[in-house]
Amino acid sequence: MKKLLDYQVGESIDLYLMIKQATKGITTKGSPFMTVILQDKSGDLEAKLWDTTDAHVETYRAGTIVRVGGDIHEYRGKNQLRIKAIRPAKEEEGVTIADLIPSSEKSKEVLFEELMAFFFEMKNPQIQRITRHLLKKHETAFKTYPAATRNHHDYVSGLIDHVVSMLNLGKALADLYPSLNKDLLYAGIILHDVGKVIELSGPIGTQYTVEGNLLGHITIMVNEIEKAAEELNIEGEEVMLLQHMVLSHHGKEEWGSPKRPMLKEAEMLHYIDNIDAKMNMLDRALSQAKPGEFTERIFPLENRSFYKPTFE
Amino acid sequence: MKKLLDYQVGESIDLYLMIKQATKGITTKGSPFMTVILQDKSGDLEAKLWDTTDAHVETYRAGTIVRVGGDIHEYRGKNQLRIKAIRPAKEEEGVTIADLIPSSEKSKEVLFEELMAFFFEMKNPQIQRITRHLLKKHETAFKTYPAATRNHHDYVSGLIDHVVSMLNLGKALADLYPSLNKDLLYAGIILHDVGKVIELSGPIGTQYTVEGNLLGHITIMVNEIEKAAEELNIEGEEVMLLQHMVLSHHGKEEWGSPKRPMLKEAEMLHYIDNIDAKMNMLDRALSQAKPGEFTERIFPLENRSFYKPTFE
Amino acid sequence: MKKLLDYQVGESIDLYLMIKQATKGITTKGSPFMTVILQDKSGDLEAKLWDTTDAHVETYRAGTIVRVGGDIHEYRGKNQLRIKAIRPAKEEEGVTIADLIPSSEKSKEVLFEELMAFFFEMKNPQIQRITRHLLKKHETAFKTYPAATRNHHDYVSGLIDHVVSMLNLGKALADLYPSLNKDLLYAGIILHDVGKVIELSGPIGTQYTVEGNLLGHITIMVNEIEKAAEELNIEGEEVMLLQHMVLSHHGKEEWGSPKRPMLKEAEMLHYIDNIDAKMNMLDRALSQAKPGEFTERIFPLENRSFYKPTFE
Amino acid sequence: MKKLLDYQVGESIDLYLMIKQATKGITTKGSPFMTVILQDKSGDLEAKLWDTTDAHVETYRAGTIVRVGGDIHEYRGKNQLRIKAIRPAKEEEGVTIADLIPSSEKSKEVLFEELMAFFFEMKNPQIQRITRHLLKKHETAFKTYPAATRNHHDYVSGLIDHVVSMLNLGKALADLYPSLNKDLLYAGIILHDVGKVIELSGPIGTQYTVEGNLLGHITIMVNEIEKAAEELNIEGEEVMLLQHMVLSHHGKEEWGSPKRPMLKEAEMLHYIDNIDAKMNMLDRALSQAKPGEFTERIFPLENRSFYKPTFE
Amino acid sequence: MKKLLDYQVGESIDLYLMIKQATKGITTKGSPFMTVILQDKSGDLEAKLWDTTDAHVETYRAGTIVRVGGDIHEYRGKNQLRIKAIRPAKEEEGVTIADLIPSSEKSKEVLFEELMAFFFEMKNPQIQRITRHLLKKHETAFKTYPAATRNHHDYVSGLIDHVVSMLNLGKALADLYPSLNKDLLYAGIILHDVGKVIELSGPIGTQYTVEGNLLGHITIMVNEIEKAAEELNIEGEEVMLLQHMVLSHHGKEEWGSPKRPMLKEAEMLHYIDNIDAKMNMLDRALSQAKPGEFTERIFPLENRSFYKPTFE
Amino acid sequence: MKKLLDYQVGESIDLYLMIKQATKGITTKGSPFMTVILQDKSGDLEAKLWDTTDAHVETYRAGTIVRVGGDIHEYRGKNQLRIKAIRPAKEEEGVTIADLIPSSEKSKEVLFEELMAFFFEMKNPQIQRITRHLLKKHETAFKTYPAATRNHHDYVSGLIDHVVSMLNLGKALADLYPSLNKDLLYAGIILHDVGKVIELSGPIGTQYTVEGNLLGHITIMVNEIEKAAEELNIEGEEVMLLQHMVLSHHGKEEWGSPKRPMLKEAEMLHYIDNIDAKMNMLDRALSQAKPGEFTERIFPLENRSFYKPTFE
User: Fold this and answer.
1) H-helix segments, chain A
2) Is D62 an 8 Å CB contact of chain A?
3) Which of E25, E30, E210 sits opposite A82 (nearest CB)?
């Protein structure tokens, strides 16, 4: 069935959608209106509701499922939705939030199982214990959070999806370059972004928390490793090296790592993270472009447009 | 009495000095020699010992007190000492290390007392408890460590000297700008560099530890605050804000702070730290320059030379 | 009494306000309108007047006092005023411009007296004579100009307010670091921005003059010192050092100083200027934020948002 | 058998070595000497020959095999060789250049065979034809050249060694991210540095040619692709995309690519190149470091030192 | 006769204009409209057509000549045209495209003749043959293309106009600095931007081609020189030096030159290109400004405004 | 007759030379020596005098003419002179300083006459009066100073040589771009570096003065224009524009101009200055290189080496 982002400019839609975000506004001339972001599994689009009342504001909140009729038009190079009809979905219509939010292709349980399998290739007990302890402590959130608020893996269970993809890439690298220490590399991959479960507000309508703003997921996670080691009575270099892996994974001071990588595995963790994030962004942008044309500019890829070849 | 740095180029010396650092070398033509850095309270100078033997290496180690005769000469714009006679000091000559190492002008006990007085101006019990706890935990090292391996306050008890000077400046600012929160500001000043007692190796012959290299004093201290709060059962915003104060005190990501200051007091902490360090460097460099001339280039001040006016 | 910036979004106002700025416009569809910035002592807000005539343009000029009824609404994260009724104030209503423009808390006379008191701590006659001469020459403007067109101390008598605040901070520093030369430091603080009285157009509706654009207040002031010295028949290093203080007070070439500070006092002048400007911006931004929230982004503070703690 | 780089400071050697580079010098006091770089398969070290004559200059040229006795000493943190005895090797001693120059672990024939196998996974005939044509044209040089004059893969057959390693990594990525076009990716990997066979002077004593300096291997190779397409009568997007792959593989303008990657495969080529080069540099530097210590600073890795953990 | 850009804000026009660009849009409230850019020889202005139909879209395409009545108004600091009446021009009205598009002042034939005269001052036969060959190959396009899509010489025959102006400047330089090689300098000037005839789509409605985006005019032209040399059987340094001239003419890697200039003539080519482009931009911007005022900000001149003196 | 820089490595010399600079040194082992820079019209070379006495220091001062025998050798890629015999020249040998210092090819009188001729093309009386006044005031120094302490035009009368060369280039530009105002352009060229006569110490053994360091030639000259205008009772825009020309001629804040050019003529002045300085550096460097080779790296040209073609 055709989804929201499958429609072209000029086409009409009649779809169940979820309100991802709703903001009140007032036109410069004084009439109230609302800006809503509507989504289904294919992605999201912005729309306006004009001449709205307080009742509309009550009804059309983030998280509400609605049935919407309208057309797709283009505004400053981006598609928008022009709403012609909108009403809240009725319970008996049987549409649930899970039907409308994008999520990883594999279920979080499958992903978690795949992740756990990587422990079989590890041998250092201290590193394993700390990693397992922190996974267990944050398991629920870790399985449902996105990896980011936007740009890449920004959907429900996006974080674990990203981590499992990175583990597979890590394994390929460790096979090609056998001098890499798998304990450090895999544990680093698993833990590097777990701090996001405290930095961000939750899987839906994700925002930065105050702690996220003031400390950031890197520092949060280094603290977590420190406390885990204390709780588990683990001392020794492993604790410090795991902290360094997390600390340095942004690669440069100006990208938020207070220390640059000083372990071979930390250097590789930074690359693996980058490649997996960029492949995710590129696949998404190229899926919207036609052969022989360029994608929209992709801001986190230095605002570049990418070309989609005419042959496969 | 005239000290090492009081002598001009061309003058002869006959002084007791301590060997700060000793390194073996071999000339490109193959003769062994030693490079020694000799110091007294006024500062240090480099010298060479030529045609040395294994016995010399044994005798002239870092920490040894020696009596040295020689002249001051200039080499590439820096003064050096040319040794004409050197022998280890004898015990009966009564010279001790404490006579020869530079240190803060006030004793560490006096400095600590001055520091403790600032708690009377604080009122938030959580912030006070964490700060006192960490001071107590690291008291011995905190009272003797330098603030840095070189550049500023790089002498025994330099760290507490720097902190007390910063507290006085902090108090002046808080008086002029009463909206500043003294609890956060004073605690931030006291704690900001305590992590150096783990980052650095000790008060003499100071070097970076492995943990110092891989984690850095900022991260080390944020961990310490986390553990202190846990141990003292303190929860709430104060913990996070203290961590942010420490985290952001370098002011910019490229200077090692994973987050820029987002508290007014954190912004001021960064300034206070800077001003006190720079005044220390400037006073030291200008004390070696003559009126109407420029100082040597000061690397951490963007390699600038400063002018010493001819009038006072 | 509640002032303009004390009203929240959704509240109605009925206030006397001054038109700070008025600009004609034509909608893309061709109807004339006006954008007016209205202010009282608490600050200013933008509003639109729709379907305006030439008569409106005549009536609603910058400097006019008006009585305005309307509501506060939000537009792109900033508050705006929606005007429902507007008319020029009548003379018998007794509202004056002085009632409506923000200004320093202390009167300019009090500030000037405070400033003059600092001369008692100076001892170098040349420096004093040049400084007094230039103060006298530009006294009227110096007492009424803002320190900047926006960002900090951008109100009537903002310049002298900023300077007196800096002098107090300078005195605190000179007390803590007695090696600082008070003559240079105080004269540098007093003179550093006097060139703004030529760079900017006046205390109200402040804009850059052509000379301000082409030469800038730094160069203008260095010229003024040159001419003052000539007129007063003063020669010697003091003239050059005062010029260097002014020249270098932006701290870096890329910030408009053709030379970086090469005097200890010049380095400190740059810090004092920065701290006082930043405290002014931070206090202003934080006064509009609620505890537990972040301020708007502050552009000249590298676009950062600052957090307002929940405790005092 | 112990090789040149296996000896520690203070140990004596007696080895056959090849002169990699020989430079005449004159001491500031006027005596002639020679600086020679001596190597065997383990790497190279610098040494001095003092008081040399014209006959020495004749005898000890680059490429000469010599028997050397001497000791290892340290000079400014780097090991050097102090020569005590040196003479040209005699033919009957049976030492050949191939015994003394470092080279890839696998033979160039094996590497070439491995490379050719990747064509079986490609399907686009134009891309294959151009790639095979250029490989054939430059086959001899391509099989023996180093990938660089220093830093990574800077040994005989280093270029093909680097390319085969990159192909294996490319295959792993293409398996994990199936949207990658293997034709473009593999051809890009194979061709990206073939221009080095014109940019550099040869497999031994490698230097930049004039053409290498003025045009660079990127431009040289884009020209080669243009001419190959013309010769093979191939038109169409494939030619342009292959040129873009080569053109953009340095990733940024400031690193010598006139265009940044605008193809997903070009973006990945840049990453693959980077990872393989960095792993080569890291493995080499870490092999010289002891557990629990840091490597020498590695210039092309932003001058960082890397830590070698104490556990495996 | 008064032309489009000669009218001031508030004046009415009645002119024949050409539609340079036409874009469909839909207001956020859903009504279709068109944005058209209208031009005559004096330049272009934007205008809107409201409530448009499919028939309008058909009628008002790029390239259509129309008769337009309306007024000039200002929008965000830029002039716009408010259309009151518009209709396609009739054939019998006798207005042609050539009457309405800006173009070089001299005809392309005159310019080409002037250009060819420079060959008389050249003496190296290889350089001349390659240059003549490429001129002949691309003559038609070279004579009609603009030098850029906007900013400078962005009109029909702008490229040759720019080149001839550069040649005159090159001749002046070669006269003042006789060590400059005229063969390299003139050939470099003539060829440096010929690649634009492939990078850009044509003389009117100019856009980047896919090849232009992926390879760029610099690389395209280096390829052309390579092929020309092959076709003409020319070998030797001249080919490489011509390629280097073209390659390096942007002056820095970050501006798209993979090599910086390494020939004196290449360094000068970069300057000549810059001066001629900037004089063109400055003359254009200053012609729109009044004496005693500043121009609009000029983006490619680092967004500066320039002052127009009150005296001549 | 063969001059100092005409000799190759390995050749012997016997020449009269002038000591340009003489510095005492002490070897690390304690023997006194001197480093002297010796020059004739062709340029300068460094040499050492070993085992020197106080008498040598007296005899071999800067400015002394000596007769020297020795050989040219190479040290770290630069030629040096090895002195075998040296003695002060005798008066009766008739060698004067003027015979040995490099200077402009034309005499300073001829240059000054050429410069004065440019006033005939100027028409604005205010600009002429200020320019003539300042030329007259500084005429003696202006005619003998170098344009810089090194890099370009760093010889006696180098400043006026540079200015006259720039005027010729300025005239060529004004002829090609007639919209340039010759009054501003020529006066800007003449005055732009006159401040160097105060920034630098003199024509021989040139160093920065204290005023040069603290204010810089740009600010010095802007002051001079201010005072000239006052003295001549000239008011009006011309004064400000001349100051802006001087102020902005370094082109960017980071290069020491507190304002970027905002006049067309100021923009061109920056280019003219650059071109003339670079041509001077390039001609000098290329004169020392052989055809088919690269020059030494030229630091102020971003450390590039330039290629000297094999053909003319």
Assistant:
1) 54-59, 97-100, 108-117, 125-137, 139-144, 158-176, 182-191, 196-199, 210-214, 216-231, 237-247, 264-287
2) no
3) E30
- Coil, strand, or helix at residue F101? coil
Return the residue in C27, C29, C31, C73 with the most chain A beta carbons within 10 A, the one to mutate for interface testing: C73
Q: For chain A, first and last CA: distance in Å?
A: 25
Q: Phi then psi for A64, rounded to 5 degrees?
A: -75, 140
What ipTM was reported for this prediction? 0.88
H/E segment holding residue B84? strand B78-88
Instruction: Say yes or no: D304 contacts chain B, CB-CB below 8 A.
Output: no
Domains of chain D: 4-99 (2.40.50.140), 108-284 (no CATH)
What angle (nearest 5°) sits at the alpha carbon of residue E281, between those of residues E277 and E286? 150
The letter for the amino acid at F232 is L
Mutate to test the interface with F, among D23, D26, D254 (most CBs of F within 10 A): D26
Across all residues in chain C, what is the average pLDDT? Answer: 92
CB D266 within 8 A of CB D249: yes
**Per-residue pLDDT at F30 exceeds 70:** no
F71, F82 in Cβ contact below 8 A? yes
pLDDT value at F222 more than 90: yes
Q: F178 has which bridge partners?
A: none
The helix/strand/coil state of F48 is strand
pLDDT confidence of residue A287: 87
Q: How far apart are CA B82 and CA B63, in angstroms?
A: 20
Q: How far apart are CA F252 and CA D184, in angstroms?
A: 44
C touches D (3+ CB pairs < 8 Å)?
no
Closest CA to B19 of B63, B68, B81, B72: B63
Q: Inter-chain contact C222–F227, Cβ cutoff 8 Å?
A: no
Assess A296–D contact: CB distance below 8 Å, yes or no: no
- Of F149, F151, F157, give the one whose Cα is nearest residue F103: F157
* CA D208, D214, D217, D223 torsion-angle sign: negative
Cβ neighbours of residue B231 under 8 Å, at least 6 residues apart? B133
- Per 3-state DSSP, chain E is made up of helix, strand and coil in percentages (nearest 5) of 45, 20, 35
pLDDT at res. E76: 63
Residue F198's alpha-carbon distances to A168, C44, C90, F211, F221, in angstroms, are 69, 50, 62, 7, 9
Residue D137 burial (C-beta neighbours within 10 Å; 0-12, 13-18, 19+): middle
Letter for the amino acid at C60? Y
H helices of chain E, where?
Answer: 54-59, 97-100, 108-117, 125-137, 139-144, 158-176, 182-191, 196-199, 210-214, 216-231, 237-247, 264-287
Q: Is A202 on the interface with B (CB under 8 A)?
A: no
With bands split at pLDDT 50, 70 and 90, how would you rate the model's confidence at A286? very high
* Inter-chain residue contact C177 with B307, CB threshold 8 Å: no
The pTM for the full model equals 0.90
Q: Is D304 helix (H, G, I), strand (E, B) or coil?
A: strand
- Chain F and chain E touch, per 3+ beta carbon pairs within 8 A: yes
Q: Which residue has the tokens 């002085």?
A: C98
pLDDT in the model for residue F286: 93
Query: Which residue has better confidence, E271 or B71?
Result: E271
B293 to chain D nearest CA, in Å?
32
User: How distant, in Å, are the alpha carbons of A24, A224, A286, C21, C234 from that of C13?
Assistant: 21, 51, 52, 20, 58
Q: From the candidates B52, B73, B294, which should be mutated to test the interface with F, based on the most F CB atoms within 10 A?
A: B73
Q: Do D307 and A175 touch (CB under 8 A)?
A: no
Chain B: nearest CA to D82, how far in angstroms?
A: 7
Q: What is the pLDDT of residues C75-134, one digit of tens each?
A: 666 778 889 899 999 989 999 888 888 888 899 999 999 999 999 999 999 999 999 999
The two structure tokens encoding residue A199: 């930095």
